[in-house]
Specification:
heterodimer, A: 460 residues, mainly alpha, 18 helices, 70% helix, B: 383 residues, alpha/beta, Rossmann fold, 5-stranded parallel β-sheet, 5 strands
Chain lengths: 460, 383
């Protein structure tokens, strides 16, 4: 059940209707928890036990940490809590990767296990870790309400692909009866539609071109290759930011506020700014729970560079158990270091907010990274890269159509950067909005790719 | 009180949204039809091609057995030799069953007055429109009324003729109906090619080339050739002959005894088609093509028509290998169900002889002389 699936609309209509019909906060939370369990079970009910383990671990660890002032004991509980949550992630996501890599390293065949990757595991384990660490750091008083903790980890709008929500953001919202979004409902509905359009129309339609190219790059030439690389940049952005828009809107319709996760990253004038705009909840998570504990910007340039590289390498690995993701992280780490070096020694003053050259260079660099990110293996990446040097007439799509699409998407991206959805909806009457929304949905639906594609970030 | 007012307001807004959506959706749907979607629906495209030429005075409706087995050029030539000016069109469409024929006949009621003969070869077991809900053909077909008719038709089967369960058909019908009213994903269907093109899509560019001289026929040149295939076919033919005889033995029995495979409701659907066709022209003919695949249904239909003859409904039965051995020769067949192009010539000549004889006996009215004017068929420009 994904946000663009008809089943989800039925599910959410029931969830929404019953939720607002309940007047007690306690029962509302229980209802939301039940809905979240159903939502997750619709993917694979077998892993509900695993999520329960993470919830119980988080609940126990946070209460035990808060229950003692003894630093050593607190530290021990922190380590155990982290080890359990991280252990779940490590086993299910990285076991085979490590075994395989080790086999290559020591030249001994080791047995690969048939392990199914539980959906959303990277996200809910990070929810758990941040809550345990924030409790240890004293940033939050842990709740004694088990339902709150369970809902914090299982809350269905952000369960399977984020944004990665911090406990201090979400738990306080659960303590009080959430107000009906009222006037905000129009904004939330519009945000959902924007997200739906990004995912079901743009991303899903582009995916077929991208998949065709990456499955057999040898059949295509440079123009097709460039198209596929560009289309993938569009696809992954629309896929993930579309999911986030729908997640924020869905949570908002239930009275909960989630932080934005994207801010037009392809308009970033440099790579550091890109990471401040792309998957913001992950970037800030890595900064707060990895980069800063490693030393952050303290120490000399070499020490800082080490911190950046470790953070980006692990950030890459978080995305998937494959060396292509690790290399992707390394590439971005290197990019960040080059940018730091350039800013320190070559740049005069503050970097501009807009810069055509900077934007273009950053976008090309990011696209290069996406080639690695999308490739199924190094061989696949190499084949794709080679095709970019072979001039063959395009066959994926006529180049004028591709250029037109690229221009249109750029204009829309820039236009949305300047557009304030809140002011758009604020000026509309309810009846006008209902009519306009009906027309917009009717116009969008014919362009949808009905072959439902899972969100790219679900695999992480 | 405030909550109640909010709920009432909310329901009104949902109603306004729905009205706005369905109005806009209808407009979008019409636009999509105009920009080429209609041409990609094989049923709609062939129908429009058939009625666009005022010389066409005979429509032969049925499934692939007709599509591949009826050669209109050959049929018309024999008729002309007998002084009968007939210009026929092969409106056979792969997998077209009776509930899909009904709306075509209803359209014909209101749009055409030059059709003088309607031939109906019902393939009761063809349910292709309910198999692939994401095809333009199915999405176009399944409005609420057609969806209910098709669902009812599927429910009539006591035993499904294919391995697909009735509930799967109903699910597919629901999906196609949803897409019919929401247009969801139709632009993609418009721009891409359907995977199973024979059943679902119609390419007018291809039609211009392929059907310029075929008048709707899908010509198939392949025949049953390999020794093993011939043996398999002949075994099936022998089984068919035995089974046919058994079923026809109950010809004199009551309809209930004909069997579970051909319930009364299916026959009622066929009768609806006959009734509508008769409002277009009195010259309606039922045809049983030469096929051996589903005797339990096809021969039961033959038996039903024989045991309870429909008043003044001429019936041409080509299902007897004893009477028409040439139609069942391996070299004339594509497979057990279908004739090939050589078989189509043979069947069309036989059919023309029988029809001409009916006209000469006064069972059917003679055609007017208009269709004899031009010999060369040109695909009419229907845009």
């Amino acid at each position: 059940m994904i946000f663009t699936d008809a089943k989800f609309f039925v599910f959410f209509a029931i969830a929404f209707g019953v939720y607002w019909a309940i007047t007690s906060n306690c029962w509302r939370k229980l209802w939301l928890l039940a809905c979240s369990v159903v939502f997750y079970a619709a993917w694979d009910w077998r892993f509900l036990g695993l999520v329960l383990l993470v919830i119980v671990n988080t609940y126990a660890a946070t209460l035990l940490i808060a229950g003692t002032d003894e630093p050593v004991r607190r530290r021990h509980v922190l380590i155990i809590g982290i080890v359990i949550s991280l252990g779940v992630l490590a086993f299910f996501k990285y076991y085979n990767f490590f075994i395989e890599s080790l086999s290559h390293l020591v030249a001994i065949r080791m047995r690969i296990q048939d392990i199914v990757l539980p959906i959303g595991i990277s996200f809910y384990t990070f929810h758990s870790l941040s809550y345990i660490i924030d409790t240890y750091r004293g940033k939050i008083n842990p709740t004694r309400d088990f339902v709150d903790v369970a809902l914090y980890i299982l809350f269905f709008p952000q369960l399977v692909a984020g944004p990665i929500v911090r406990a201090p953001d979400l738990l306080p919202q659960m303590r009080e009866l959430r107000p009906f979004p009222g006037a905000n409902l129009k904004l939330l509905l519009l945000l959902f539609l924007v997200g739906y359009f990004k995912k079901a129309v743009i991303s899903d339609n582009f995916s077929s071109f991208v998949d065709t190219f990456y499955e057999a790059p040898d059949k295509f030439g440079a123009v097709d290759g460039l198209m596929a690389v560009f289309f993938y940049a569009v696809q992954i952005y629309c896929d993930f930011s579309g999911y986030t828009d729908m997640a924020i809107a869905t949570a908002g319709m239930l009275g909960y506020r989630l932080r934005p996760n994207f801010n037009h990253p392809y308009l970033a004038p440099n790579i550091a700014e890109f990471w401040r705009r792309w998957h913001m909840s992950l970037s800030s998570w890595l900064r707060d729970y990895l980069y800063i504990p490693l030393g952050g910007n303290q120490g000399g340039p070499i020490f800082q560079a080490r911190n950046v590289m470790i953070t980006m390498l692990l950030g890459g690995l978080w995305h998937g158990a494959s060396w292509t993701f690790v290399l992707w992280g390394a590439l971005h780490g290197a990019g960040l270091l080059v940018w730091r070096f350039w800013r320190r020694f070559c740049s005069k003053g503050e970097s501009p907010r807009y810069s055509v050259a900077g934007n273009l260079l950053t976008f090309v660099f990011v696209c290069l990274g996406w080639m690695l990110f999308r490739a199924s293996s190094f061989e696949n990446f190499s084949a794709v890269a080679q095709r970019l040097a072979i001039p063959v007439a395009p066959s994926l799509m006529p180049w004028p159509a591709a250029l037109g699409l690229a221009a249109a998407l750029t204009v829309v991206h820039v236009a949305f950067y300047r557009l304030d959805l809140e002011s758009v909806t604020a000026g509309m009457s309810n009846v006008g909005f209902a009519i306009g929304y009906g027309i917009a949905v009717a116009v969008i639906l014919p362009f949808v790719n009905v072959a439902v594609q899972p969100f790219i970030y679900f695999q992480f | 009180m405030q909550t109640q007012a909010r709920q009432v307001g909310g329901f009104w807004l949902i109603a306004i949204f729905l009205v706005s959506f369905f109005c806009a959706s209808s407009v979008v749907g019409l636009l999509l039809q105009q920009v080429g979607l209609a041409d990609k629906d094989i049923v709609d495209a062939k129908y429009r091609q058939a009625i666009a030429d005022p010389r066409v005075n005979l429509l032969f409706l049925g499934a692939s057995l007709v599509d591949m087995g009826f050669d209109p050029v050959e049929f018309d030539a024999v008729m002309r030799k007998r002084g009968l000016c007939v210009s026929s069109y092969n409106l056979g469409i792969g997998g077209m069953t009776v509930p899909e024929i009904l709306p075509l006949l209803k359209r014909l009621q209101t749009s055409s007055n030059h059709v003088h003969y309607v031939f109906l070869a019902p393939s009761f077991w063809s349910l292709e429109a309910g198999r692939f809900p994401n095809s333009i053909r199915s999405i176009d077909h399944f409005d609420f009324s057609n969806a209910l008719a098709f669902a009812g038709y599927v429910a009539s089967f006591h035993r499904m003729p294919s391995s697909i369960e009735a509930k799967e058909y109903w699910n597919n019908i629901a999906i196609a109906t949803f897409r019919h009213y929401t247009n969801i994903g139709l632009v993609r269907l418009l721009l891409t090619t359907a995977p199973n093109k024979y059943y679902y899509e119609y390419d007018f560019r291809e039609a211009f080339l392929r059907q310029a001289h075929l008048k709707g026929q899908s010509r198939v040149e392949r025949f049953i050739q390999a020794t093993k295939d011939i043996e398999t076919y002949q075994v099936a033919l022998r089984q068919f002959i035995v089974e046919r005889a058994k079923i026809l033995e109950s010809e004199s029995a009551s309809a209930e005894q004909i069997g579970d495979d051909f319930p009364n409701e299916l026959f009622d659907y066929f009768m609806q088609a006959v009734t509508i066709a008769r409002t277009i022209t009195p010259n309606v003919v039922a045809v049983e093509p030469p096929t051996i695949t589903y005797p339990a249904i096809d021969i039961s239909f033959v038996a039903r028509l024989r045991s309870t003859p429909v008043q003044a409904l001429p019936f041409l039965d080509f299902s007897d290998p004893g009477e028409y051995p040439e139609l069942f020769e391996p070299e004339n067949r594509y497979d057990g169900s279908h004739l090939n192009s050589k078989g189509a010539v043979v069947w069309s000549r036989l059919l023309a002889d029988r029809v001409a004889a009916m006209i000469e006996r006064g069972v059917l009215e003679a055609p007017s002389s208009g269709a004899c004017g031009a010999q060369d068929w040109k695909v009419p420009d229907i845009r």
